[in-house]
């Protein structure tokens, strides 16, 4: 499963906020973003590692099942989560 994430690095606490549930019309597609806040700074990949860990905990999957697909240095990221 691919998920889109908007990241806030350097936050006060680590948390994941799922996207709001909405009904879409037939054939309509829209990207839904998870909002993820992490305490770590966005330097040297520290925030990306923290995001991987918090997503693994949130979805109850091993860390090895999550892969950053796009957005390594961006606030908008795409992750692939296997097993969901």
Automatic annotation (TrEMBL):
Pfam families: DUF167. It comes from the Bacteria. Coiled coil: none annotated. Belongs to the UPF0235 family. This is UPF0235 protein A3G99_01915. It comes from Candidatus Zambryskibacteria bacterium RIFCSPLOWO2_12_FULL_39_23.
């Amino acid at each position: 499963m691919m998920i889109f994430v908007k990241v806030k690095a350097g936050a006060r606490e680590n948390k994941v906020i799922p996207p709001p549930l909405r009904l879409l019309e037939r054939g309509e597609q829209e990207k839904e973003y998870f909002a993820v806040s992490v305490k770590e700074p966005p330097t040297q990949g520290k925030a990306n590692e923290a995001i991987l860990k918090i997503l693994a905990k949130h979805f109850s999957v091993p860390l090895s099942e999550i892969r950053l697909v796009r957005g390594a240095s961006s606030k908008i990221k795409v992750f692939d989560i296997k097993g969901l």
